[in-house]
Amino acid sequence: MIQPHGVILAGGLATRMGGGDKGRLRVGGRSLFARVIDRLEPQVDRMALNANGDAARFADLGLPVLPDSVDGFAGPLAGVLAGLEWAAETGAPHIVTAAADTPFFPADLVPRLLLAAGPEGVALAATRDEDGKLWHQPTFGLWPTALRHDLRAALEGGLRKVLHWTDRHGAGMAEFPVTGLDPFFNINTPDDLATAEAAL
Predict the structure, then answer these.
(1) 3-state secondary structure at position 19
(2) Which of 7, 28, 59, 194 could form a disulfide with 200 if both were Cys (CB 3.0 to 4.6 A apart)?
């Protein structure tokens, strides 16, 4: 099987952190970008970064920078679409996405998503909280390039919620255990940053 391409989603506005690129925040002396790249790189064939604005500010990362190809900060699905269009140009059958603000995601994310893929090749990661409630992790998924035209049409039609689109395509679910801090803990606030530091 051809390994997926990896796409790091960093196209958000980071309003709760005062704006800027959250991936530049440091945890344990290393940037979130560095931690996410190190965790994703062994699991994928190649990587790119989905981000908007001046791509030159990411030159030090050594990754292709993919801006959203639909207008108006349309959320994670816009980043997925940018990744799918990039991967389709290289002949890759699918991508796996990871969020730039989630430094502890599983080291077996990609193989577990591949095993969980639904009939159309879509899968999302998920965890359960202390009460057993299932939480989908919509920025961590497996996405086939064959669905890129369908996704573009959905976005241009106003769809924004990831689960609304993945439900249409029978997404599989890869459930990951939680021992201590949720592996998909993401950093949205200064308190979250302190929690991440304490978890190292």
Answers:
(1) coil
(2) 28
Note down pLDDT in tens along the chain; length 200 residues: 678 999 999 976 554 445 578 999 999 999 999 999 999 999 999 999 999 999 999 999 999 999 999 987 789 999 999 999 999 999 999 999 999 999 999 999 999 999 999 999 999 999 998 899 999 999 999 999 999 999 999 999 999 999 999 999 999 999 999 988 999 999 988 999 999 999 98
For 103, phi then psi, to 5°, come to: -80, -10
pTM score = 0.95
Structure tokens at 56: 């030159």
* Token pair recorded at residue 151: 């996704």
Query: The tokens of 158 are what?
Result: 């106003």
Count, residues in the chain: 200
